Amino acid sequence: MNDNETRLAAAWPCKTRELHNHHFDSTVWNDFVFRDDDIIVGTYAKSGTTWTQQIVGQILSDGSPEVDVASTSPWVDLRVPPKPEKLAAIEAQAHRRFLKTHLPVDALVYSPRAKYIYVARDGRDVVWSMHNHHANANALWYAALNDTPGRVGPAIEPPQGTVRDYFLDWMARDGHPFWPFWDNVRSWWAIRDLPNLLLLHFEDLKADLPGEARRIAAFLGVEVAEDRWPAILEHSSFAWMKAHAAQAAPLGGVFWDGGAETFINKGTNGRWRDTLTAEDCAAYEATARRELGEECAAWLAHGSRARPMAAA
């Protein structure tokens, strides 16, 4: 091993903790057997996860309209179904695997054999999408998360109050009722220079989907014929995904009132601007700078168009 290889080996993240709650069982990764071409899509949640999975699925399939990311790209650290069943199903996959995680890096087994794509989004946009996801969840969703064996910690309960109330509680209790936000973003930003990690941002995907899709393909080492790009991009659009939402939503959307089209929501940002006060936004931005540092906070807010966040 040469000096560069030695330095790189020392830089690979190590798992230092487990995360358990109504959603998580991070121990699934401890028994996961990696393949050399595995792809892991990581996000906090409601940050563009399914969209990125769809783009990856389209790139790998040359734009096939039949790609069903809900079944082909499972959430590894979700605690249902149980670990043995989930690992067996993933091991049986014969295609190039692309999987998802919502864990911070220090609760994940990070392998040099895989390629990782981390997608970020302004926390205010995350919460607006999360509120839609949570407020429209039905009894089946709560039963799967709360009543199946293996839950650690309190149950997740229906949201109370307005979306602003929901945001303020999420801020005050760092991600409640889901999981902590800031250490998730911070942990992935800290390893952004690793050669097998690509950082994406929701704003950049919206601003230039063709360019970002080509970045993803290049990162994954996939050569796409030029005549396949129109189909890939069409099937990666929000309009197409909304019209074919059952192929993206878990179990075809049975966990949400309104079905799969509720799971694939608006794909828009900035809806909080008409609801949050100037003081609410100043508090969020000050927290982002404190938790993430100026550079990361600016990137989280704006993506590649990052500019310093105004001081509160």
Automatic annotation (TrEMBL):
Residues 36-292 form the Sulfotransferase domain. Keywords: Transferase. The keyword Lipid metabolism does not apply. Belongs to the sulfotransferase 1 family. This is Sulfotransferase domain-containing protein.
